[in-house]
Design a protein that fits this description.
about 160 residues, 1 helix
């Protein structure tokens, strides 16, 4: 028998396997933790993106409005050439022209207040979005480009 044969003993192989198992378990725990954080981050970004898109669209619609009509859960914005956009919200579901564009929220609310200031119509709006622990509010004052209370006047020449 030759005693100079090289190789690993059973104890060395078992120790290497134990160390490998510990390293793999640490990597998998880290992966699960990072995946959970990425999922939460993705949901947060989605929430903020939905809010920003809706806020921008609402602001632009009200700025271009010919007329608006609203209730506690609906807003109808009329534009030139008989075009309109309807917003409705109920139980966290927001629909624009009867289509659900955004994920359901825990709470959605749009409140509108009109007034006349310096002979120009002004609309104050507040948009509220809440999903789980996140909530955002946006409010703005818009001087309507074409006043809602305009009455046509015939001028004879």
């Amino acid at each position: 028998m030759n005693h100079n044969e090289e190789g690993f003993t059973l104890v060395e192989v078992l120790m290497a396997m134990a160390i490998l198992a510990i390293v793999i378990s640490l990597v998998s725990v880290s992966f699960v933790f990072v995946s959970g954080r990425m999922s939460a981050w993705n949901e947060q970004i989605s929430f903020y993106n939905d809010f920003q898109i809706l806020s921008d669209q609402l602001h632009n619609d009200l700025f271009r409005a010919e007329a608006i009509s609203y209730t506690d859960s609906t807003l109808l914005v009329n534009f030139e050439e008989k075009q309109n956009r309807g917003y409705s919200w109920n139980n966290g579901n927001l629909k624009i022209n009867n289509s659900s564009i955004f994920l359901p929220q825990d709470s959605v609310n749009i409140s509108i207040m009109e007034r006349v200031e310096d002979e120009q119509n002004v609309v104050n709006y507040t948009l509220f979005f809440r999903r789980e622990a996140r909530s955002m509010v946006d409010s703005a004052t818009i001087k309507i480009r074409k006043p809602i209370l305009w009455e046509s006047v015939n001028i004879e020449r």
